[in-house]
Design goal:
Order of helices and strands: EHEHEEEEEEHEHEHEEEEEEEH
Bound molecules: NADP nicotinamide-adenine-dinucleotide phosphate
Structural class: alpha/beta
Number of helices: 6
Shape: elongated
Radius of gyration: 21 Å
Number of strands: 17
Length: 309
């Protein structure tokens, strides 16, 4: 029986783990991936984490993991099959091989990339369709890539690929980017990035590998094909809340309803990082969510242990 089980070892989960260790809570961290770090592992450079200008996502994830390991916190690497009785006093987590029990839970299992759901996307996935420019960009050296999206990830991907590719098209459905101003400045300074405004992707073209992207301009209704070797999709994230969708209050987009203190609709269950309702999903806010969730869990456990509900 653990005081606290933290699920997920991205910035929120590892931030929580470090604070939980300092609070001397009997804690277990469970992570399904082989490496800790979450979505930052897919990020070329994180330029807004204080004290670490320009650090790569991989290095920052590794630094978080090394800090946790130094405190004796090595995640148990298993895929969770179900979370049971999470509103009860004792919460149960079932994996293929084990059953774990805890008095409190911190849910920090984040979000994953959204799909476009257009023809060719699934069939050509891994054959030119990618959701991770830093992982797959090297395959497109001196070739032509298309990035779809208008947020920070699409902007970072386009800038990263512009350093490798002959040409990069950035296809966005509106006439203004959502990405931070500094990233926009970087994009507009890259001569080999061509903006394709007001355009939605219709179909990823190719038989055995990607040959292009068919798009439609939503203002003129004109359809055209961009010739390309790779299509990088960066159209946002969706929360990984399937495991708890019938047990916790979620918002209309599937995020767990929880404020800064991480308190969810179930007693003793706290949410941290990209998985919860919040205005700004960044590494720095995920880390602070982890710390706040541990403070809330500590208060909850103290009240339980002192018979003070
Ligand atoms: P995002 O900010 O939600 O942007 C998604 C983009 O994709 C938007 O421009 C959106 O268009 C477009 N889009 C959505 N669905 C689409 C569709 N079906 N077809 C075409 N375009 C579509 O997502 P993100 O860039 O992946 O970033 C995810 C989160 O991570 C954000 O909160 C971001 O701030 C955060 N992030 C943080 C850091 C950091 O901490 N350093 C770095 C990168 C990202 P509209 O603009 O028209 O809605």
């Amino acid at each position: 029986m653990y005081d606290l089980i933290i699920i997920g070892s991205g910035p929120a989960g590892l931030g929580a783990a470090i604070y939980a260790e300092q609070a001397r809570l009997n804690t277990l961290v469970i992570e399904k991936a082989a490496m800790s770090g979450g979505q930052i592992l897919l990020t070329e450079a994180v330029d807004n984490y204080p004290g670490m200008p320009g650090i790569s996502g991989m290095d920052l994830g590794e630094a978080f993991g090394a800090h946790a390991r130094k405190l004796g916190l090595e995640p148990q690497r298993e895929k969770i099959l179900s979370l049971e009785n999470i509103s009860g006093e004792i919460k149960t987590i079932r994996t293929k091989k084990h059953e774990y029990q805890a008095k409190a839970l911190i849910l920090a299992f984040g979000a994953e990339h959204r799909k476009l759901d257009i023809p060719g996307e699934d069939d050509l996935s891994g054959l030119g369709v990618s959701y991770c420019a830093t992982c797959d960009g090297a395959f497109y050296k001196d070739r032509i890539a298309v990035v779809v999206g208008g947020g920070n990830v699409a902007a970072e991907d386009a800038v990263f690929l512009s350093g490798l590719c002959e040409r990069v098209y950035l296809v966005h459905r509106r006439d203004a980017l959502r990405a931070d101003q500094t990233l926009q400045e970087k994009i507009f300074a890259c001569e080999n990035i061509e903006m394709v405004w007001d355009s939605v992707p219709l179909e990823i073209l190719g038989q055995d590998e990607v040959t292009g992207l068919k798009i439609r301009n939503i203002k003129t209704n004109e359809e055209r094909e961009l010739t390309a070797d790779g299509v990088f999709i960066a159209v946002g994230i969706v929360p990984n809340t399937t495991l708890v969708k019938d047990q916790l209050k979620l918002d209309e987009n599937g995020y767990i309803c929880a404020g800064e203190e991480g308190v969810t609709s179930a007693p003793g269950v706290f949410a941290a990082g990209d998985i919860r309702t919040k205005a700004l999903r960044q590494v720095v806010t995920a880390v602070s969510d982890g710390a706040n969730a541990v403070a809330s869990a500590q208060k909850y456990l103290w009240r339980k242990d002192n018979g003070n509900d």
